[in-house]
Design goal:
- Keywords: Cell cycle, Cell division, Cell shape, Cell wall biogenesis/degradation, Cytoplasm, FAD, Flavoprotein, NADP, Oxidoreductase, Peptidoglycan synthesis.
- It catalyses: UDP-N-acetyl-alpha-D-muramate + NADP(+) = UDP-N-acetyl-3-O-(1-carboxyvinyl)-alpha-D-glucosamine + NADPH + H(+).
- Residues 33-197 form the FAD-binding PCMH-type domain.
- The chain is of the alpha+beta class.
- The protein folds into three domains: 3-85, Uridine Diphospho-n-acetylenolpyruvylglucosamine Reductase, domain 2, CATH 3.30.43.10; 92-201, Uridine Diphospho-n-acetylenolpyruvylglucosamine Reductase, domain 3; 218-300, Uridine Diphospho-n-acetylenolpyruvylglucosamine Reductase, domain 1 (Alpha-Beta Complex).
- The protein contains eight helices and 19 strands.
């Protein structure tokens, strides 16, 4: 199907001003990497998300969901079809001992709302740069806490475009994993169940974790966060450091000198630079220590022709 036909049908289910063609994705992603999307769509209601999914099924065009890209690399050739971006879904509200947050809200903001409501359990998330949707997608965690510890349930749009409630157990949450990708679900909102706490105690924990993050992580440059999962019995950053890889660069991408587990976009890197450096790190660590580093970051999209 031709792009002009797709645009015409999209305009029937979503406002024209929320449809952009040939949008440069690096402008919307935390990593500042990535080529263009054929169509970049920013729905403003759950019904619009449902309608886009149903239209994609009807017309058989590909669609991709993007968060803020804090754990994602989009290749330089961009993404074909329709890219859904849920930046308009950013409401966070409280309900007793629960926090209800839409998928486009920053998980950091959810932790701050929990603090304001004197609720404990989300302190670990105070430094995670992703969205709520992304946090559920990968069961985000830090400093001993994970999303699975606090998630009660969420609402998703499934592959058929239906609005479905899923419990935390339904998502099969494990270390940096959920079944959201396999099911093809689009998270719209999540409800977190927390416990009453003392404001000053919660704040003290968050302040301490924020200090640890800011002092150890290279936040001054765009990055995808921690690149690799923790290999059993090892720490990825230590293996990379002991391989003398810190400061190694390919193009504008560099293994951080501040934290070896991070690769930073130091000087207008391309996605190809970034991916090539990831592969170089994996090969070097494998050759030196016979340990396979598994990527935590996702890579999607197409190479430049």
């Amino acid at each position: 199907m031709k792009n002009e036909q797709i645009r015409k049908r999209l305009a029937e289910v979503i406002a024209e001003e929320n449809i952009k063609e040939n949008e440069l994705l690096r402008n919307h992603l935390y990593t500042k990497l990535g080529g263009k999307a054929d169509f970049f769509v920013t729905p403003t209601s759950y019904e619009e998300v449902q309608n886009v999914v149903k239209l994609a099924n009807e017309l058989e065009f590909p669609f991709t969901l993007l968060g803020n890209g804090s754990n994602l690399i989009v290749k330089d050739g961009g993404i074909r079809g329709v890219v859904l971006h849920l930046k308009n879904f950013n409401e966070v509200k409280s309900n007793g001992d629960q926090i209800v947050a839409q998928s486009g809200a920053a998980i950091i903001d959810v932790s701050r709302r929990a603090l304001a409501e004197k609720l404990t359990g989300l302190e670990f998330a105070c430094g995670i740069p992703g969205t709520v949707g992304g946090a559920l997608f990968m069961n985000a965690g830090a400093y001993g806490g994970e999303i699975k510890d606090v998630l009660d349930y969420c609402y998703v749009v499934d592959r058929q475009g239906e609005l479905v409630k899923r419990t935390a157990a339904d998502l099969e949450l494990d270390y940096r994993h959920s079944n959201i990708s396999e099911k093809g679900d689009i998270v719209l909102e999540a409800t977190f169940s927390l416990k009453p706490g003392q404001y000053e105690e919660i704040k003290a924990v968050m302040d301490d974790l924020t200090y640890k993050r800011e002092s150890k992580q290279p936040l001054e440059y765009p990055s995808c966060g921690s690149v690799f999962k923790r290999p059993p019995g090892y720490f990825a950053g230590k293996l990379i450091q002991d391989s003398n890889l810190q400061g190694t660069n390919i193009g504008g991408a560099e293994v951080s000198t501040k934290h070896a587990g991070f690769i930073v976009n130091k000087d207008d890197a391309t996605a190809t630079d970034y991916i090539s450096l990831i592969e170089h790190v994996q090969k070097t660590v494998k050759d030196k220590f016979d340990v396979e580093l598994e990527r935590e970051v996702r890579i999607i999209g197409e190479d430049l022709e």
